[in-house]
Structures are given as C-alpha cells and as structure tokens.
Amino acid sequence: MALALFDLDNTLLGGDSDYLWGRFLVENGIVDADLYEQENHRFYQQYQAGTLDIQAFLAFSLRPLAEHPPAQLHRWREAFVRELIEPIMLPAARDLLERHRSAGDTLVIITATNRFITAPIAERFGVEHLLATEVEQHDGVYTGRSFDIPCFQAGKVKRLEQWLQANGADLDRSWFYSDSHNDLPLLERVTHPVAVDPDDTLRHTALARGWPVISLRE
C-alpha cells in the first residue's frame, strides 16, 4: 500500500481551520469575544513558534462543545464550513489529491485539529481516512475533553503508527505534505517528505535536506 499523507491547515487549506473556528465562534457571539479572541490568538502564536501546550489548548478550544447541544453545534459547524472553509479549499490541493488517487495511493489527512472541525472538511475533499485529535462524547453529547494521543508533533507519528498496525500498512512507499515545522517528526519518517508553502523553519530544514518545496497557492 502506497500512502499519501496530507496535513490540513495551511497545506490543503489556505488557512487554519482551528483558528478560524475560534473566529467563527467570536463573530457569531457564541463565546465571550474579547477573552476568546485573545486566547485564540495567543495559542495560535504558540503553535507557530512550536511552543504550544497541546493539552492547555485542547482544554480551551473544546470547552464550547460541552456548552451547547450537539444539534446546534452541528448547525454552526455546517455554516462555518460553508462560509469560512470552502472558500479556502485550494484548487491545486484538489489536483494533488487527485494525482495520488489516480495513482492508486491511499489518501490520509493527518491533522492536529480536532475531528469535530475536520471530519466534514475531509469529506469535502473526498478523503476517506482522517487521523485527527479526538473529541470525547458521552451518550452523544460532547464533554469538552479529548481522548487518545493528540495528533500533534510526535503524537502525530504515534497515531499514524497505530493506524498502520490496524490496517496492515507501512511507510515503505509514503509521501507526507506539510507546511509546518511542528510536523518534522513525521516528515522525517516518510520516504517522500514534501514542504508545502512552508514556514521559515521548515523551509530552511527542507532546503538543507534536499526535500521538495512546493506551493499550492500559486
């Protein structure tokens, strides 16, 4: 099985879905605007710097899921994807997915952003396999907590290893496309690492190691 792995935010998307979900909550009066916007921005800066405390961020970002009925949350999510995500689904990303699909590769989106946000996005890209940070539900109601290993930095590798074992697959023929230096642990594991519109740290690393650097935004 040849695997084509794709980061989501700022790779297949021309923006960050986790951050944009926070903006959507603020702009629609679902959360306290001043406090939430400030914290959302602070955590995003930490992510970019590679210093994010993922558990602290999850406690913050998943809390609104526990404060509203699932049906209402799903209506908001549908509006969010339609209004803020569909416009940043990059045409070149769709073309890249289709090239791997036509080659018979197994497509996997692997993202630190939680499954509540990313599941409908993966569906819109036509990608069946999604590895994301998991959100806990009890009797169909979101608890505001995560479970399993967060799909972030080295945790992304661990989650993929679990998936590979469950599916009888390996990384002998594998690609991983990402924009972020947070994904270096996984980029170093695949046979074909590709930096996509990378941040400065990843660009420097990719050029030093001879990895391809591409853009899906041009």
Please name the defining characteristics of this protein.
218 residues, alpha/beta, Rossmann fold, 11 helices, 7 strands, 51% helix, 19% strand
Question: How are the SSEs ordered, and which strands pair?
Answer:
Layout: E1 3-6, H1 8-12, H2 17-27, H3 33-49, H4 54-61, H5 63-66, H6 70-85, H7 91-102, E2 106-114, H8 115-125, E3 129-138, E4 141-147, H9 154-167, E5 174-178, H10 184-187, E6 192-196, H11 200-209, E7 213-214
Parallel strand pairs: 1-2, 1-5, 2-3, 5-6, 6-7
Antiparallel strand pairs: 3-4
Helix pairs in contact: 2-3, 2-6, 6-8
Describe this structure in words.
There is one protein chain. This protein is α/β, with parallel strands linked by helices. The chain has helices at 8-12, 17-27, 33-49, 54-61, 63-66, 70-85, 91-102, 115-125, 154-167, 184-187, 200-209, and strands at 3-6, 106-114, 129-138, 141-147, 174-178, 192-196, 213-214. Helices cover 51% and strands 19% of the residues. β6 (192-196), α11 and β7 form a beta-alpha-beta unit. It is globular and about 45 Å long. The model has no long low-confidence stretch (mean pLDDT 96). It holds the Pfam family HAD.
